[in-house]
Amino acid sequence: MPLLILWAGHREREATGTSLAAIVLIALLGVAGHAAYGNVDFAKGLLIAPPAVAGVIAGTTLQQRVPERAVSAVFALLLVASAALLIF
Amino acid sequence: MEVAGLLTVAFAAGMLGGMVGVGGGVLFVPALVVFMDLTQLEAEATSLVAVVAVGAVGAWRQHGYDNLRLRDAVVVGLLSPVGVAIGVVAANEMSQRTLELLFAALSLYFAAGLARRALTPSRSGSASP
Q1: Which of B9, B69, B97, B82 lies closest to A51, judged by CA?
Q2: Is the ipTM of this complex over 0.90?
Q3: In this complex, which of B32, B53, B100 lies closest to A44 when CB atoms are compared?
Q4: CB-hemisphere CA count at 13 Å for B22?
Q5: Where are chain A's structural domains?
Q6: B107 → chain A, closest CA residue
Q7: What are phi and psi of B124, to 5 degrees?
Q8: Inter-chain contact A19–B21, Cβ cutoff 8 Å?
Q9: For residue B3, how many other CB atoms are within 10 A of its CB?
């Protein structure tokens, strides 16, 4: 998402939509690979999918109602938190 | 009780995914470990099932708002395995700590770029890299 904004000139909402579509391809490859080794518990994956889908519908709806710059700010905070976890 | 906690975290993960364009694995994985007693590897693998669903529905929703550039998504999606392959080689060539610090530095670099953008007054239609 930061790559799409900072290097590919996307606006915030475009970057999140495009990122989510790319994630489908990446995650499908990941599921196929892990399933080959028997590490995927499909029952539990399908248990968490419905509330997660409800969440993403709520999140995308809410996102249309906040300023685009706020999306950048939230992602910047997530990156700082992630960096802090890695460093400490 | 465990299931209720898992489903609540799953909803929050989906919401985060919709807001900032991530798959939600950062929340799915610990929730599956804590509430379902999966190992870290099983949780990472299993979370991808929900990540596929979050990505597909989120992208479909953003497409409805005219916020999807499908060609760029395919390019990123197909290039990512190359990045993963480079990461695997790098992980084997350097210490875990070096890798952590490099990834932290990269995260802070992108955070600074996004923060600068967030603090810049918005001008319609223009990106400011």
Answers
A1: B9
A2: yes
A3: B32
A4: 18
A5: 2-87
A6: A79
A7: -60, 130
A8: yes
A9: 11
Cα A36 to Cα A66: distance, rounded to the nearest angstrom: 41
CA distances from B109 to A18, A49, B20, B116 (A): 21, 32, 18, 11
The angle subtended at Cα B41 by Cα A55 and Cα A40, nearest 5°, is 65
Residue A52: name the closest of B36, B82, B29, B128 by CA: B29
Q: Which amino acid is at B65?
A: Y
Q: What 3-state class would DSSP assign to B76? A: helix
Q: How far is B118 from chain A (nearest CA, A)?
A: 5
Q: Which pair of structure tokens corresponds to residue A15?
A: 């970057």
HSE toward the beta carbon, residue B122, CA cutoff 13 A? 12
Please list every residue in chain B whose beta carbon sits closer than 8 Å to the beta carbon of residue A16.
18-21, 58, 62, 67
Segment 14-73 of chain A within 8 Å of chain B by CB: 14-31, 34-35, 37, 39-42, 44-49, 51-64, 67-73
Tens-digit pLDDT profile for chain B (129 aa)? 789 999 999 999 999 999 999 999 999 999 999 999 999 999 999 999 999 999 999 999 999 999 999 999 999 999 988 888 888 888 888 898 998 999 999 999 999 999 999 998 766 544 444
DSSP state of B21: S
How far is the C-alpha of B73 from the C-alpha of B55, rounded, in Å? 11
